[in-house]
Input
Amino acid sequence: MAMKPEEVLRVIAAARGSAIVVPTMTTAPAWRTIAPDDLSVTCVGFMGGASSMGLGLALARPDRRVVVLDGDGSLLMQLGSLATSAGAGARNFVHLLFKNGVYHTSGAQHIPGGLTVDFAMMARAAGYRVTCAIRDLDEFRGRFPELLKAEGPVFAELHTGLAEQTPMTARGGVPFHEQVETLRARLLRPRAAA
Output
């Protein structure tokens, strides 16, 4: 049985620490509810752009982990981003792929290759340092802390079912430009003296 995306997101929220999170498409509505005040910027409206946005943040802020919550349909739109992310070699980059075999946001049409596409193998071939496929929530719960600490780029293919909501069914949220300004302001705050 596939993992429920919302349960996976709760595990991420509990363990992410100070990581910047880039949710996209069907992870976005639940993430807004699960982690409303964290360091995140939602990638909705430019399908396939989450990993590129996350990579840019990882390169700009090597002092923080960046966790991308990608979708299989989204990644297929920009499959070349695997080679770009691997080639950049950001050690703080964690790319989590929610694999459900469909373009859920636009009506659950099957993606090319459906569930047979092996994204973890593609990421490994592109040059990601750590890759894996996880099919069970308990396994994810046990492995996520080590993935979060591993030297990146890290890629995990998470076998999930469909999210309860999509950006099309769960309207609302903060406009992208406001998310960017809030994230920028929070990242530029002076650090407290230890």
In short: The domain at 5-164 is CATH 3.40.50.970 (Rossmann fold).
